[in-house]
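Q: Hi! First time doing this. I have a protein sequence and I read that you can turn it into a structure. Is that right? Here it is:
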Amino acid sequence: MKLSERTCRAEILEKIFPEKTKLKIRLLEIPFHALCVHFPTALYPVAIIFLFLALIFDRDSFRNTYFYLMIIAAFFTPISHLTGILEWKNKYRGAKTHIFINKIRFSLILSVVGALCVIWYWFCPEMLNYTGIYNIIFIILNISTLPLIIYLGHLGGKLVYGLPR
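A: Yes, that's right. Below is the predicted 3D structure, encoded as structure tokens:
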């Protein structure tokens, strides 16, 4: 009986990579929260840089880049929040500690602030052309994402690396 080429390759791979060294990836073992959380964490500061570039140089390309980055960051923030809750329930069994309660609260605040920035700019993109109280509030609202991200990252670092002694 002649073995197919595919069967021969499979047997060769089994000899080269015995069962102990095979990489097994299970869906639940993939760190979805770690993947999802770093994406908006990186995009918010970059979007704010483009916001300031738009204010300084008055270019539509900087405004558009700011807006698109904010859309993506605001979209992924709730996904990051939900994956964090799933990981909290699975890995930490839903323990209601100070760290988890603050992470949930502040990630919800970040979701709202990110969505407000996107919605505000969507309906009033020309506001960056003027100076006034609304412009200042809009810029402060955008900048307020940074301390939220830093604090959430700090709490996440405590969970991953442990509390300082």
